Fold this protein.
Amino acid sequence: MPISLTVLEKIIREAGSLAMRHFKDLENVGVSKKSPRDLVTDADVAVEIYLKEALGKAYPEYGFWGEEGGQSDDLSSRWIVDPIDGTHSFSRGQYFWSISVALEIDQKLVAGAVYAPALDDLYIAAKGSGASKNNKVISVSSESSLADSMIATGFACLRSYLEDNNLNRFARIAQKTTGQRRFGSAAMDLCLVADGQVDAFWEQELNLYDVAAGALIVKEAGGTITDFKGNEGVFPKQILATNGKVFNELLTLM
Ligand code: IPD
Ligand code: CA
Ligand code: CA
């Protein structure tokens, strides 16, 4: 194992404490727009700076790619970080946001952690070693009927320039499922599939930093990670995570 999960957990919890200090003082947190629909706050920037320093000190041999600060030069082994996933939710004082940290070595995801500080839920996994939530082993749900399932999705694609904005797909699938949710943090959506809280999640037009850690956690919890055609792999522009049991039925509706 190229890193210690105990060290990773300690660092992401420290990042969570920093984020919570901002979260409890929202009226003094600066918010700006990166694009018409993308916000960035002082917390996003502060958490990413902290994670870059702490991970760089613990593991100087790895590069760093953060959503706010951009790519490091080392692409062979790097941390892939979303300092606050669900910034809109964070900025409105809602609890459903997370910090996502993944380690990729030679284009393979080897470790990942997603921490929701406001909920104090920490999901973590190492390739081949299973997934856990708050130190308890987790696995995907046993739900095998799509009609009885609960699904989650997001609308990153609700941009006017995109023909496929997920609304028709959502309407199709909503009519064939029991529960539908839009939580607002793709990293957490994936962890809810891993934890059996929802049976499937899909979204388009994301970035690798949104999904890298959560995708590994789903796979280590026994779930599937594919594109909308069922091709195995992590495709941020078209990610579909399932418990495996509703996969075939859901694929016909994607
Ligand atoms: C966002 C969240 C959200 C998804 C958006 C992402 P951000 O991440 O993951 O669930 O629907 O497309 O941009 O921007 O808050 O890091
Ligand atoms: Ca994100
Ligand atoms: Ca973010």
